[in-house]
Design goal:
By secondary structure, the chain is α+β, with helices and mostly antiparallel strands. 45% of the residues lie in helices and 17% in strands. The protein is built from 3 helices and 3 strands; from the N terminus they run E-H-H-E-E-H. Strand 2 and strand 3 form a beta hairpin. It is globular. The termini are far apart. The model has no long low-confidence stretch (mean pLDDT 88).
């Protein structure tokens, strides 16, 4: 378990909760807040799949979105 009470995670994941993807992004040097990531999902800029109240997003989709915004 890590400091946040969850399982330890590799620095790169394929699909995860917003918080998991956020932590992987930060671990890989990307500067984005968890709130900003949640807003991108809420606005539809980043597609998500929900299971109950939990949204799951693709790490690769977030990276692609960030690269488009920086180009």
């Amino acid at each position: 378990l890590n400091d946040y009470g969850g399982n330890t995670m590799e620095t790169t994941i394929k699909i995860g909760t917003i918080r998991q993807v956020y932590r992987a992004l930060v671990a890989n040097g990307y500067m984005i807040s968890e709130y900003a990531l949640r807003q991108l999902v809420r606005s539809g800029a980043i597609k998500s799949t929900n299971s109950g109240h939990t949204a799951y997003i693709s790490y690769d989709a977030v990276i692609a979105y960030l690269m488009r915004m920086c180009a």
